[in-house]
Amino acid sequence: MAGGGGGGGALYNPRTVEEVFRDFKGRRAAILRALTTDVQEFFQQCDPEKDNLCLYGFPNEVWEVNLPAEEVPPELPEPALGINFARDGMHEKDWLSLVAVHSDAWLLSVSFFFGSKFGFDKTDRKRLFNMINERGLDSKRSKTIQSMDEEEGLEEEEEDEEEHGETLCGACGENYASDEFWICCDMCEKWFHGTCVKITPARAEHIKHYKCPSCTNKRARPY
Q1: Staple partner for 100: which of 85, 141, 146, 176, CB 3.0–4.6 Å?
Q2: Is the torsion defined by CA of 186, 190, 191, 195 positive or negative?
Q3: Closest CA to 164 of 142, 141, 147, 181
């Protein structure tokens, strides 16, 4: 189940600050690839019908979705367990963001595990943290989620335009435009520019059943 090639799981023990940081960069690049470039493959591999799955990133920039290590305790800190179970219960971008947050924490835990294992002193730990702090997944994750939002917004706008493209305002007769507020009459089912019938989006929130001026006048006429 490896992404981008195999052989990522070979045991590697970096011993200096620089080596630990290189290890961090490789694992981080792998995680970022899974959450961006390879996101569709990553999404498919996280099948909710399977057992508890984890997202691993390796120093050679290979990512892998796999079961957790069987050793207790494991050779290295383990990533978040069961990321696949929440996949279909959340919006995709929210799920990816959650995986990224857990992966960020895992990357830190692996780096400082090596620091503890090889006796980094206060100065080394601080230097390692400062080097790592310039990176992390946050900025890349935000850009990814933003691009997903933009694509989703464009798709919704195109669907909206297609659905209402031939709609004319019942007051002025102009075509529908997605960048303008419109309201539909619950009586005659005609659409109107909010500005044409003097209804703002804020006011519309408090209207349960809207009647356009024409329908309101009809109801007001005596029989």
Answers
A1: 141
A2: negative
A3: 181
Cα distances from 142 to residues 39, 94, 97, 136, 138, in angstroms, run 15, 11, 8, 11, 6
Which two three-digit tokens encode residue 141?
């994750």
Instruction: Give the Cα separation of 163 and 191 in Å (integer).
Output: 13
Beta bridge partners, 3, equal 63
Q: How confident is the model at residue 96 (pLDDT cuts 50, 70, 90)?
A: very high
DSSP string, 12-78: ----SHHHHHHHHHHHHHHHHHHHTTTHHHHHHHS-TTSS--EEEE-TTS-EEEEPPP-SSS-SS--
Cβ(168)–Cβ(175) under 8 Å?
yes
Query: By three-state DSSP, how is residue 168 classified?
Result: strand
**Using CA atoms, how far apart are residues 69 and 52, in angstroms rounded to an integer?**
11
Model pLDDT, residue 180:
82
Q: What backbone torsions phi and psi does residue 220 show, to the nearest 5 degrees?
A: -80, -15
Give per-residue pLDDT as tens, 101-118.
999 999 999 999 999 999
- pTM of whole model > 0.90? no
CB 55 within 8 A of CB 83: yes
Higher pLDDT, 176 or 119: 119
Other beta carbons within 10 angstroms of residue 141's beta carbon come to: 22
Alpha helices (runs of H) in 83-189, residue ranges in sequence order: 92-117, 122-133, 138-164
